[in-house]
Amino acid sequence: MRVECRFFFIFAQFLAKTIYSYLFYMANVIKLRKGLDVNLKGKASLESMQTKVEGQYALVPDDFCGMKPKVVVKEGDAVKVGDALFVDKNHPEVKFVSPVSGTVALVERGERRKVMSVRVDADGKQTAKTFDEKDALKLLLESGLFGFFRMRPYDVVANPEDKPKAIFVSAFNSMPLAADFEYVLQGQEKEWQAGLSLLAKIAQVNLGISSKQKAQALTAAKDCTINVFDGPAPAGNVGVQINHVDPINKGEVVWTIGAEEVIFIGRLALTKKVDFTRTIAVAGSEVKAPKYAKTLVGQPIKAILAGQIDESKSLRIINGNPMVGVKTSKDGWLAAHATEVTVIPEGDDVYEMLGWIAPRFKEFSTSRSYFSWLRPKKAEYTLDARIKGGERHMIMSGEYDRVFPMDIYAGYLVKAIITGDIDRQEALGIYEVAPEDFAIAEFVDSSKLELQRIVREGLDILRKENA
User: What is the pTM for the complete model shown?
Assistant: First the structure.
């Protein structure tokens, strides 16, 4: 009898602790209700393929927004992994380094001698440079990993002379077809924690995770403040997380960096060498077998998509996910920050009888224009790249605000950017936003405005005015 009572008592204690922990956890979740999840067909299955380190790789300066490249190598130079290919003219200490060892094959230039890319023929050996710097910031600068930091305001490459009040990392991406970071993290938990610990030597680290994530490396991460978010896209955007955790005021600076780039930093901390291997999602309705690929920054897209697409079709290949990615081609290169390569139909070969008048059951709509709203929420959709309409007058209907989970009037801010009213932009919170924060608003925009481009141009103008 005593044994049974003791067992019951221990079980009751365990149950009480579990319930308390769950309630405490849920009480501290930041719940976002504004936003929109778009369930697209072609999610990557949880299996990986390994790409070979061979052929030509390229580092593209345009991947590092806000910096002016100065090439520091010549064609024919031998380079190791971690050797600088170009630096920022305004801050020469910020280096951008080779992801492979080999020989510099080409410095590609465009109009007005703009540097388009620096290409390296890989030797397949991956001979890496060693970095012994003890200071955390200097180590990141010397190794070329500092170039992956972005700063708010302006969403450009961070300035090493600034003193950020915090570093923000988002460990989940809520956009359609985005890579599952919990899967990517498997087997790299030590590097992840080492990266967070090194970042903590520079500034306070705020880690944003999803309420659906259960990996202990995320929920029990050390040397950082963990913030749990629950809600639809764009809840995973670091800008949304900054807005709810520690909003930016004029004169303040925060740095952001991608979750997988934290793993880059952890590898550097543990091995004293840089390794740009990353696991990306190869996804989209036009990919034959969507899965993950272990690859390197700057790898040719055609190597990643080899045998995965029907080249006879009209396709849109995207560096990134469909909402915030950049259009590319099979002759392009994996972007520095890209965690996905997605392929969807271009849509330029589609003719629809009756157009929008026809009833639809398989087309996604944010309103009840189509009968597809009767389908289950888990239904998957195949969307193409068509805009389905031309640019129209901007009507203040509040449709942006319904999917914009930040304490900012998105419609009024866009109008202030279009009209060039800098004072109004500052009052409406432009220092907190990045183009990606407007991706879902652009998707639902009945005016068909390129909101991400508008915001990018507005940030660039504001940066020049404040220089």
Answer: 0.92
